[in-house]
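Attaching the record inline, Q. Sequence:
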Amino acid sequence: MSKEPNRRRTTAALTAAVAVAGAAVLAGAPAAHAAVVDVDYACETKIGPKSAVSPVDIKAVRNGSAYTITMSFEKGVSDSPVELPKGVMTPRADLVLGGADSGTLKVKGTPNTAAIPPDTPIAIGTLTGTYTPKKNGRVTFTAGTLTVHALGMDAAVCTPKNNPKASLELEVTGLSGGSGTPPPSGGEEEPPAELPRTGPLDSAMALGTLGGTVLLTGAAGVLWLTRRTAR
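Structure, as predicted:
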């Protein structure tokens, strides 16, 4: 007996298995792709220009119809010539949106929980913001301007100078309206039919009409009685 049919069945089974595996991989594809990106910051500070490279990580966690966005730094980008007491330094940053969205998203950190010694890199920590998408599609998040607010002033304003790539690609799905584009108009709408009048003035008009009807009925009755008496 020929073994050709068995080989065909084996080949078909392997092909089906590969197809199922491929479908499973696609179904389990992540909705977000994050990568740590080195950002070369050029900073304008109160003690002159500074520069530093810091790896930046941006992540997203869905929270209902919005996303909680976190931006973290592995290195400080500037230092202070004086000690910064506890709670006097707060960082904030702009994330540049791309892809299916545009503009910027503001993220902000918390005040420093410990004093920062002089002439040491200022630890930025984690910055947080909320992103509410307007339509479905892939949205990218790229590190933008970083501001270090300390001692009541913007002590350092840092701008990426190496044109960094996006740290996060977020696939937004499930929003009503699809791509967010309003449906095309089907032409001018006809004005709605006039509704029955039910206001106070309309009620008065109705009562007046009813009164007139009663009055006419009464007059007709009097006229009929007059004619009958005359006979």
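The beta strands are 32-34, 37-45, 48-63, 66-73, 89-99, 104-108, 126-131, 137-150, 153-160, 168-172. The CA atoms of residues 83 and 216 lie 100 Å apart.

More tomorrow.
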